[in-house]
Amino acid sequence: MRKIIIDTDCGVDDAIAIMIALTYEDDVDIKAITTVTGNTYVDQVTKNVLRILDFFDKKEIKVYKGASRPLINKLERGAKIHGEDGLGDIELKYSERKEEDLNAIDAIYKISKTEKFIDIITLGPLTNISIALNLYPDLKNYINVIYAMGGAIDVGNVTKFAEFNFYADPEAVQNVLDSKIPFKIVPWDGIVKNLFFETELKEVINENIPSGKLFHSLIKNPISYTERLIGMRTMSLPDPIAIACYLDESTIKQKKRGDLVMELGNNTLRGSSILIEGEDVEIILDIYKDRFLNILNRINNLKGGESI
């Protein structure tokens, strides 16, 4: 069984990715969920993770709060897509639980060293991972792979050149690259090729069960945002696609190897992930959409949770 840490800035798509991960409890052991500022502030991110876990009665999964801001950048949030609370401002009960006393950075090190070989799935900026590698240089010896949703090879979503997670803290990304830990990324290029219409998602996820009601409540805000932007009720699912590629690599349709260098200058290219010749990074460029939808469909099997 694979042992994983999920590092998240829990917005709408992060929440859905966590839901997918919960359906694989026979295949993966979620040792921790660590939180980082990104889509919203880290305090709210932490509350969001606890809300999702409580809804599905997964209170045994420990949550650790991490970095409150990027290493250098000013804080960027995704309120237009994710709402003020990061979960589309839905009516979802807040947990009475709190995060663990240990902070996320120390938790990443302690858990990785204890478990020896751990996989880290990053769904937000890489700030926590970068700080942990700085404080604990031997951490790299205890990580099998870092599987990240982030980066842009040819097309970005924050700027023409940059994707949000890597743009939010490019110095952190460069630190992770420099560690030479095996690194796999799902950049924006593979995400934008696979948009999902609201009608399509209604066919896949049952609206009449608690997990389905939660799913469809979560996606309302990003679908409405996309409709205002391009006139179609559709959305991207970056973090669910990333975690699906990790959980079942048969989802991957196209990938390549190369090296990345982050643009760290204060110019229009800042936050870009520049592809150069090499073999250190596996870059996932496209997926089999039908296989992904089969994985997404597993959300219908999640039990627990009060109707919302």
What is the strand arrangement across the widest sheet?
A: 3-2-1-4-5-6-10-9
Number of domains: 1
So what's the overall shape?
Answer: globular
What value does the average pLDDT take?
Answer: 95
* Proportion in β-strands: 15-25%
Report the top-level CATH class: Alpha Beta
CATH architecture: Alpha-Beta Complex
Order of helical and strand elements: EHEHEHHEHEHHEHEHHEHEEH
Number of strands: 10
Structural class: alpha/beta
Count of discrete alpha- or pi-helical segments spanning 4 or more residues: 12
The CATH superfamily label reads: Ribonucleoside hydrolase-like
Which fold name fills CATH's third level, the topology? Answer: Inosine-uridine Nucleoside N-ribohydrolase, Chain A
Radius of gyration: 18 Å
Distance between the termini: 33 Å
- Largest sheet properties: 8 strands, mixed
Low-pLDDT segments? none
Q: Which range best describes the helical content: under 10%, 10-25%, 25-40%, 40-55%, 55-70% or over 70%?
A: 25-40%
